[in-house]
């Protein structure tokens, strides 16, 4: 990978050490190998994993640099959860739980966590079975998992207890926000995506169900 790739990572995620950059480059190679076997991500993105997946995931670290307890729902191929784990390794005491019910994908996540000694724990359960297993997170993430209204239902046990949600969304996010606002009250900050001209990161907090 070129020096420009390291610069792009720092532009997306904030200050990142050369060691972490090199570890993420190595992770990309591991991901590509597994993806050919068990289809972790769309083949149409195979040639642009660095920008489409790694940088897209890494930008969450810039939004909440102080947070140390994270949980990623439906981690799948490790985006954003594994990428965040690499970045959280630079934060003393930080960790992330990766919730993934698919056995093959959970095996991939566990293999990467072990190979790179990441501050992450794989919770190989359905999300609604993971609540008692996940320590109180400060941040809940999910990418390409479900509409916002469903994400709020799934993450409500944590978000109503004070956690903040960071959710990747595409060009139709406003309709999802409007639909969610019919059932939930929340504070919302929209962050323009660093990798997708039509995408946003929704920072959602103070979730309360409407009566």
Automatic annotation (TrEMBL):
UniProt keyword tRNA processing present: no
Places the protein is found: Cytoplasm
Keyword DNA repair attached: no
GO terms of molecular function: methyltransferase activity
Biological role stated in the UniProt entry: Specifically methylates the N7 position of guanine in position 527 of 16S rRNA.
Family: Belongs to the methyltransferase superfamily. RNA methyltransferase RsmG family.
Name the record gives this protein: Ribosomal RNA small subunit methyltransferase G
Gene: rsmG
